[in-house]
């Protein structure tokens, strides 16, 4: 099998960018991606794919190859973020307080064009491809899709996904083995004391003092309780207490995230979350404070399968051939609910760099000025198509058209 992927991607690049800019102008929050889902669904139907809906705004397109084989699932996310855009782009968000600040507009458009190219060559494919356009990635909808049966009908054998990253230079590609994105745990911790006047603190039980001890001492998990080789990040992002300078409040509410590059809940003995609560409990007891601890969100680490990663790196080798781009290592403490899919079947989540200081596309994700170098979109499409062909058919002989 051979067809000229590079040339076809170049031919469709204007359409690719137009799709991305349209989605960027019309961002939709998780579970509200009605316009986006409608465009995606109509596009896939026009390609002749079998389509279905899941989790309301989730869209699935099934491409049946011309020859029997395995089923590869490819996933793109569609949701935007509750952020007021500050890019100044001509195609900036038209929805106040909502913007694509994480690249999902690019992910959606890349996989649409990849679906088009692969559908044009479906008779040569040895197996099927399930294109999954997922809603609400920012709040963990992947688990809902798994529970609704996204991995069945037909049964998925492997899964691949990608993320455009402003933490990587434009054109660089990463598909490491093992953990590449963090387990993410979100907590809400409420400390209950006894309110009173700051002039007579002995008559009160001060939860703020206890909170200070909790914040400081919990950092010892990383520095004293775990090997330095185990990456952990514990950050408090919200603290609320009190109403006036001369009043000791009766409670403090703290929220934050506990991240690690391993699946802590599978660890033998005292887990990371157990250690967290042990320290909280001890400090609160010392300060005569009661506590409530709630873990409000959990996603496991994204752990890439070595076999699928080797396929993706092989595709990357073809994609960057003849360019200055490189395959690079990359690991991040950001979480990703793609983990829910790759826990079910072997999978790999790869990264495509889109940072370019000259184009001001090096702002971090979730920043009001976040943008991507659109040259990375074509690379992402080529990675999707080449990875799919490599997985289903073996290494592609990508012969340029005459």
Low-confidence stretches: 397-402
Shape, per Cα inertia axes = elongated
Treating each run of at least 4 consecutive H or I residues as one helix, how many helices?
11
Computed structural class: alpha+beta
Average pLDDT, all residues: 96
What is the terminal separation in angstroms? Answer: 16 Å
| CATH architecture descriptor of the largest domain | 3-Layer(aba) Sandwich
Main sheet? 7 strands, mixed
CATH class descriptor of the largest domain: Alpha Beta
Domain count: 2
Q: Identify the strand order in the major beta sheet.
A: 1-2-4-3-5-15-6
Strand content: 25-35%
According to CATH, the homologous superfamily of the largest domain is Zn peptidases
Describe the fold and architecture.
The protein has 402 residues and is α+β, with helices and mostly antiparallel strands. It is built from 11 helices and 15 strands. The strands form 4 sheets. Strands 1-2-4-3-5-15-6 form a 7-stranded mixed sheet. Strands 10-12-8-13 form a 4-stranded antiparallel sheet, with helices on one face. Strands 7-14 form a two-stranded antiparallel ribbon. The model is unreliable at 397-402 (pLDDT under 50).
